[in-house]
Write a structure and sequence with these properties.
Elements lengths: L9 H10 L2 E6 L3 E5 L3 E6 L2 E7 L2 E7 L3 E4 L22 H11 L3 H10 L4 H8 L1
Antiparallel strand pairs: 1-4, 2-3, 3-6, 4-5
Helix pairs in contact: 2-3, 2-4, 3-4
Length: about 130
C-alpha cells in the first residue's frame, strides 16, 4: 500500500495519522473474548490497539486465541475475582453494565441477562 521496500518510519506514520485525525492507543488487556454462534475465541496476553478515526473506533487484536465451547469463556472466575459471587452464572459486572445502561435495578438486569444467556447487547435491547 505504501510501497518503498521497508515501510514508513514509525514517527512519520504517527505524524500522518495525526494529520488525518486518527488517534491510536495501546490497551493493556488481560483477556479478549470473541463470542460467535458456534464457539468462543479467547485471547490471553493479546496485544490490543484502539484506533479512533473521527469518532469511529476500531480495535485490533494480535495473538493466538484458544477456541472454547460457546458461552464457556469467562465462566470460570478465580476465587478472588470480583465476579466470583455472581448468581446463575451471570457475572456481577455484566449485571451492573446492563443496569447502568438501561436504568433498571440489578434484579431486573440479571433476569434479562439470564433470559438471553448472558448476551449483554441482547439484554440491553430487551430492556430498552
Amino acid at each position: 500500500m505504501f510501497g518503498g521496500g521497508g515501510g514508513l518510519n514509525p514517527r512519520k506514520m504517527e505524524q500522518m495519522m495525526q494529520q488525518m485525525g486518527i488517534d491510536v492507543d495501546e490497551i493493556d488487556a488481560e483477556e479478549v473474548i470473541i463470542r460467535t454462534a458456534e464457539h468462543d475465541l479467547v485471547f490471553t496476553d493479546a496485544d490490543v490497539t484502539k484506533m479512533d478515526a473521527r469518532g469511529q473506533e476500531t480495535y485490533q487484536i494480535i495473538g493466538d486465541p484458544d477456541e472454547r465451547e460457546r458461552g464457556s469463556a469467562g465462566a470460570t472466575a478465580d476465587a478472588g475475582d470480583a465476579d466470583a459471587g455472581d448468581e446463575g452464572g451471570i457475572p456481577d459486572a455484566d449485571v451492573e453494565i446492563v443496569a447502568a445502561r438501561t436504568g433498571v435495578d440489578d434484579a431486573e438486569a440479571r433476569a434479562a441477562l439470564e433470559a438471553v444467556d448472558g448476551d449483554l447487547a441482547a439484554a440491553v435491547d430487551r430492556l430498552e
